[in-house]
Design a protein that fits this description.
With about 300 residues, the chain is α/β, with parallel strands linked by helices. About 30% of the residues lie in helices and about 15% in strands. It has ten helices and twelve strands. Bound molecules: NADP nicotinamide-adenine-dinucleotide phosphate and glyoxylic acid.
């Protein structure tokens, strides 16, 4: 069995780890003209990588989001499999809870005060006044919704198909969207980027937060293109929105002159909310390759992507 590896950073470390897990396999970093492989382990490969390997059976993405992979022409016989958690959901839960608590408890204001040697209290704010809405109740969204609930915030969740998550008021589809937005004050985006979800956070939808009252807050940890940047900036300026924590951007790295960097109501992190953990990911991907080589159906693998659905 031959496995081709393509990724922008440390491909050798992935080859080494996969080789340890799959000692009988012939595993190498891909180069143009290499013999076609049976499986590939990738992040953002070029179209040539796919074109030169039309017999690939498994294309294993080392991230959860497959929006970049789905831009490529991939033969229907090649199955795309994404990471299924592999240590990401706990990181995402930490990140979102941190951003939420920092905002609600005004820890950013305390930090600024402390830098000036100022001892002053903020008026306590009530959790019930900060219902959280998690868009996307998949592997990451469900974990985040439950974690937020552990801090006693009211939690709403929104998904494409109806879901039930303990402690979470669930909404689904276009029909449930307005009600979901109106019931939520802090909006967390954990959707995959698809034609249906591109630009989902825009002037019209953001104005529906918090029952239309001011004070909405945005936490975007999915993809930059879920958010219409100009609409966010305008709503922060005009007053309906209180702030945003943004981890993902349409252009990454975020250009040095981008207004988000220095905006007083925006916190920026460099797409770091849930990192791919190499060792956990290698073990997961190698396990899946072993399973299909032993006769398992791709359809039975957690994380199999449906290209029609877009995630
Ligand atoms: P997932 O398990 O596939 O879950 C996706 C969720 O979104 C599902 O609940 C799905 O609904 C829902 N959804 C999809 N399309 C929808 C639509 N049109 N309307 C309403 N709900 C919709 O994905 P995941 O593993 O949780 O990852 C989510 C995303 O997080 C990834 O795609 C990636 O972009 C992003 N991510 C970011 C980072 C980072 O570091 N910033 C790291 C990892 C992942 P159903 O339940 O009905 O299918
Ligand atoms: C990171 O953004 C991922 O999709 O895994």
């Amino acid at each position: 069995m031959r496995i081709a590896v393509w990724m922008p950073e440390r491909p050798d470390a992935w080859v080494e780890g996969l080789q340890r897990e799959l000692p009988g396999a012939d595993i190498a970093v891909w180069a143009a003209g290499a013999p076609p492989a049976d499986h590939a382990v990738v992040w953002a490969p070029p179209q040539q990588f796919i074109d030169e390997q039309p017999t690939l059976r498994g294309l294993f993405n080392i991230g959860a989001g497959v929006d970049a992979l789905l831009q490529l022409r991939v033969p229907p016989t090649t199955h795309i499999v994404r990471l299924d958690d592999a240590g990401m959901s706990v990181q995402m839960a930490e990140y979102v809870c941190h951003a939420l608590v920092r905002h609600v408890r005004e820890l950013d204001v305390y930090e600024a005060d402390a830098r000036e040697g100022k001892w002053s209290y903020r008026k306590p704010r009530l959790r019930r006044d900060f219902p959280v809405g998690v868009m996307g109740l998949g592997v990451l969204g469900e974990r985040v919704a439950k974690a937020v609930g552990q801090f006693d915030f009211p939690v709403n969740g929104w998904s494409r198909s109806p879901r039930q998550v303990g402690g979470v008021q669930c909404f689904s589809g276009a029909k449930g969207f307005d009600e979901f937005l109106a019931a939520s004050r802090v909006l967390v985006c954990l959707l995959p980027l698809t034609p249906d979800t591109r630009g989902v956070m825009n002037r019209e939808t953001l104005l529906k937060l918090n029952g239309g009252a001011p004070g909405g807050y945005v936490i975007n940890v999915a993809r930059g293109a879920h958010l219409v940047n100009e609409d966010l900036l305008a709503l922060l300026e005009e007053g309906p929105l209180a702030g945003a924590t943004l981890d993902v951007f349409e252009t990454e790295p975020l250009p040095p002159d981008h207004p988000f960097w220095r905006h007083p109501k925006i916190t920026v992190t460099p797409h770091a909310s849930a990192r791919t953990l190499r060792e956990e990911s290698i073990v997961q991907i190698a396990g899946k390759i072993r399973a299909v080589e032993a006769g398992a159906a791709f359809a039975d693998l957690p994380g199999l992507v449906d290209p029609q659905r877009g995630y």
